[in-house]
Amino acid sequence: MIATPATELTGEFTTDGRRTGPVLMDLKNITLRFGGVVAIKDISFDIREGEIRAIIGPNGAGKSSMLNVISGFYVPQEGEIWFEGARRPPMKPYEVARLGLARTFQNIALFDGMSVLDNIMTGRLNRMKAPLWAQAIWWGRAEREEVENREQVEKIIDFLEIQNIRKTPVGRLPYGLKKRVELARALAAEPRILLLDEPMAGMNVEEKEDMCRFILDVNDEFGTTIALIEHDMGVVMDLSDRVVVMDYGRKIGDGTPDEVRANPEVISAYLGVSQE
Amino acid sequence: MEFLYASEVLVNGLMAGVMYALVALGFVLIYKASGVFNYAQGVMALFAAMTLVGIMEGRVPFAHLINAMFGVHVSHFGWTVPAIFGIALTALIMVGLAIAVEKLVLKHLVGQEPIILFMATIGLAWFLEGLGDVMWGADVKVLDVGLPQGISDGIEAATNDWLGYGFFIDKLDIWATVIAAALVAALVGFSQYTKQGRAMRAVADDHQAALSVGISLRFIWIMVWSIAGFVALVAGIMWGTKSGVQFSLSLIALKALPVLMLGGFTSIPGAIVGGLIIGMGEKLFEYFIGPMVGGATENWFAYVLALLFLVFRPQGLFGERIIERV
Amino acid sequence: MIYREAGDFKTSYRDDGQTFPIRLDRWGYYALLAVAFLVVPFFIDSYWANAVLVPFLIYAIAAIGLNILVGYAGQVSLGTGGFMAVGAYAVYKLMTAFPGVPIFVHILLAGLITALVGMLFGLPSLRIKGFYLAVATLAAQFFLVWLFNKVPWFYNYSASGQITAPERTFFGWAVTGPATSASAKYLTCLVFAVVLAWVARNLTRGTVGRKWMAIRDMDIAAEIIGVNPLSAKLSAFAVSSFFIGIAGALLFAVYLGAAEASEAFGINKSFLVLFMVIIGGLGSIFGSFAGAAFLVLLPVFLKNVLVARLGWPTDLAAHLELMIVGALIIFFLIVEPHGLARLWRLTKEKLRLWPFPH
Fold first, then answer.
1. For chain B, first and last CA: distance in Å?
2. I need a surface site. Which of A140, A191, C197, C284 has the fewest CB within 10 A?
3. Where does the chain cross the membrane (chain B) (predicted)?
4. Where in chain B are the domains?
């Protein structure tokens, strides 16, 4: 579908560990409940450095809850999250962000009152440490940081080809571009792991192809580890190195796209019960 | 004796609480049906009371303005209107106000953020306050619709015989309590057992869904604002009879706000319980703590109580729990 | 034709981020400052100072402060009057306790004290939002005013319960007290207004401004991308209260000279400043000035037309003013929630394309 070396990324080529480094994040026996409802039931999987890891499953399978657990928005009742070889204690979402996790949202969560540029600059907030008084008089470190971070942000703007809308208020943009700005904001944080919540939901074919290309380029050029949720099976199988399959809050499959495709439980979850 | 005195304070606090609850009720009704937090509720009570006095005394509306513009000296028509007709006419005017508010303000602000709507009602409050003054003059007016007033001798005598200490309770407060209770019962009955009431609850639950089953949003809004106007009229009569119709009457709206924070913005029982707690609380606090800190704690007690309370239970006593999602 | 960006190339990110990207705007701004500092002080009389310019500058500072909280950080406050009272009483206590210290230091300290009080009352904003918070800030309003009325220490046990500003000088010029000249009052307030507006502009275009706006636009997303809501909200309360405190200090010490808490800093003051912010434009520094000018000038205008020209009674004019202000608030919220500032910007955008709009 795309000119980039997509064939190299799928299937058997990646099982040799070409792209996948050491384990970056390890989720162990995660269980999440809302009152009596069990959203996630005893799920374990890991995310390796440099890979594209997908979480798929039908609606209501608990994918979004899983992503919210990773990004610290939900705190699971049971289980452990290990990040870079250390157990992550329960944290506030903003603390998790400072560890190096950035994410996008299923229903676009941009700051509508701000320009595209300012939105992307918010992605770098945690790298700007000038004290309040210096910001107040726009002097020394405050001004220097502003310019330095602006340069980084401009690189991302060039990379995602959104130069012409730099100063447009986000509220005025069409859906597809908003998704791209959101990706830009997450990238601006230079995250250790980039979490994408249905990056292609609601897009037409052309926009989907663009988005695929950007995701692959990010992974290729910056070596960013990516974990994404998607329910478009085709796209996921093309993009990702390894796939976790969830259904009703349980994990029913985990492996390379080909392995997952061959898994009978996955087939039945997606196509209904297979004929015996 | 100390205990009996404190319990008299408590009973009086309860009566004041009923008044707060009455104003708070108007807030809850509008908030539930239209998501608008109507800051103007208190000024509506003031406006209703002013209009009632104006009609009953046969004052010429806008006399001030007419005099200034044409250099004449009109003030009264020279007739008086019985209370019952005055109340009916004022109720009609409050319905007219509801229609005007819907047409001129709400219709144009559909879908705006709640805080914008809130600020619009602050503007409405100023406008109504000015309008009331321009129409009827800003003098302190005496309102008498025939409600009994003064200390109830019966209760004083009875408690004196029974406890050896006579409770001082205003007859008006007793009447206010009875009328408020009747009003609440009527409102609950209306919203539970009539077609319009069901439609109102449907709108409160989900605007879009209510629209899709053919409920007219605009009709419901006008209806709710009319009811709130009527509640304001009742509250205005009570407070106006008690302490005269004047600007400070609109400040009871401010007192109703902490009641709402305590009770939750969406709950009718919450408004009542919240009103009672605030009424009792501020009277008791003033009685026990007030003398130590210089008195007049009623100015802020309700707010600080509500503030502290909210920090620990942000949705109020009876409000629904808020679940945040991304 | 002259009002263009074209040909005015920005060659660095520093230039690109400046306040007035169009050359003509910059010149206009410098010209305005020059007139305000070098021309007006020589011509100002006490009517213009007391009725128009001094209250305009003071309320502009308060409106900028409230705009930071409401317009940028999205936290509605109805406690402005109470916080202005903190500034006023703080500067009074400082002036009387340390007569040797320059008055400008006292005014800044009063701002800092108000900032601390503001942070204290801002703490509930972590748990409650929207109009719950707006109502909660009323607690600050009523409690603070009550405190200053009831605790004699705050008004130095004066018999009247009022605070009165003693005379303080700056390089031999009286800045406070009855002997202060119109131009000294005006210049003092002008210096504070210009410097504070510049500070507000710097804060709102930088890191902390983005944090505030992120919290305003979508608080949950802001937290997930790494904004600490505690520090963002409290810093907004602190900075906002600092501005409002200075406005309160100036209002008492320089403008009024004497004040009584419930009269000068009542709930109506809170609404007045909030209306300035709404009419001027939420999230705009220029709008804060415009809104302050509008609501300071409106009563002066009505008084001149209705009372002086037509001979109507003063109270009728006051009532009509209530109606007009109320109607204007609703009008602006319906037609242009971004207020005068937005109308101004739209005019400029048209002008930039004029006379070839396509």
1. 59
2. A140
3. 12-31, 36-56, 76-101, 108-128, 174-194, 215-239, 259-279, 300-318
4. 2-312
Cα distances from B34 to residues B117, B319, C23, in angstroms, run 10, 16, 48
CA distance B224 to B237: 20
pLDDT of amino acid A6: 36
Give chain B positions within 8 Å (CB) of A105: 326
Q: Which residue of A lies nearest to B323 if distances are taken between CA atoms?
A: A34
Q: Does B115 touch chain A (CB under 8 A)?
A: no
Domain range list for chain A: 6-100+191-271, 114-185
Task: Please answer yes or no on whether A111 and C221 come within 8 Å at the CB atom.
Answer: yes
The answer to whether residue B311 neighbours chain A at the CB level (below 8 Å) is no
Residue A151 phi, psi dihedral angles, 5° rounding: -60, -45
Q: A9 or B189, which is more confident?
A: B189
- Give the CATH number of domain A6-100+191-271: 3.40.50.300
Q: List C residues 69-128 in contact with B (Cβ-Cβ < 8 A).
A: 76, 123-124, 127-128
Alpha-carbon distance A107 to nearest alpha carbon in chain B (angstroms):
8
Which pLDDT band holds residue A274 (cuts at 50, 70, 90)?
Answer: very low
Give the separation between CA B72 and CA B65, rounded to whole angstroms. Answer: 10
Query: What value of ipTM does the predicted structure carry?
Result: 0.86
Q: Is C315 on the interface with B (CB under 8 A)?
A: yes
Q: What is the pLDDT of residues B150-193, one digit of tens each?
A: 777 777 777 777 777 777 778 888 888 888 888 888 887 887 88
Q: How do the residues of chain A divide into helix, strand and coil, expressed in percent and rounded to 5?
A: 40, 25, 35
Would you place residue A228 in the very low, low, confident or very high pLDDT band (cuts 50, 70, 90)?
A: very high
Is the CB of B304 less than 8 angstroms away from the CB of C139? yes
Neighbours of chain C (3+ CB pairs under 8 A): A, B
For residue C33, is it within any domain? no
Which residues, in sequence order, are CB contacts of A77 under 8 Å at separation 6+? A31, A32, A33
Which of B68, B254, B296 shows the shortest C-beta gap to C316? B68
To the nearest whole number, what is the mean pLDDT of chain B? 83
Confidence bin at A20 (pLDDT 50/70/90): low
Which positions of chain C have pLDDT values less than 70?
A: 1-9, 355-358
CB contact under 8 A, C320 and B134: yes
In a domain? residue C108:
yes
B68 touching C (Cβ < 8 Å): yes
* Structure-token pair, residue A178: 């908003």
pLDDT tens per residue, range B121-157: 989 999 999 999 999 988 888 888 877 777 777 777 7
For residue A107, the chain B residues in CB contact (below 8 A) are 326
A20 and chain B: CB distance < 8 Å anywhere?
no
Q: Does CATH place domain B2-312 in 1.20.58?
A: no
- Please give the tally of structural domains in chain C: 1
With contacts defined as CB-CB under 8 Å, which chain A residues touch B326?
Answer: 68, 73, 105-107, 109
**Which helix (H) or strand (E) element contains residue A255?**
strand A250-255
| Cβ atoms B276, B21 nearer than 8 A | yes
Structural domain range at position C283: 44-353
Give the CATH number, domain containing residue C322: 1.10.3470
pLDDT category, A11, cuts 50, 70, 90? very low
- Between B275 and A273, name the one with better pLDDT: B275
- Looking at chain A, which residue has its C-alpha nearest residue C15? A147
Query: Residue C314: inside a domain, yes or no?
Result: yes
Of B109, B112, B304, the CB nearest to C143: B304
Mean pLDDT score of chain A, rounded to an integer?
86
Residues of B in contact with A73 (CB under 8 A): 326
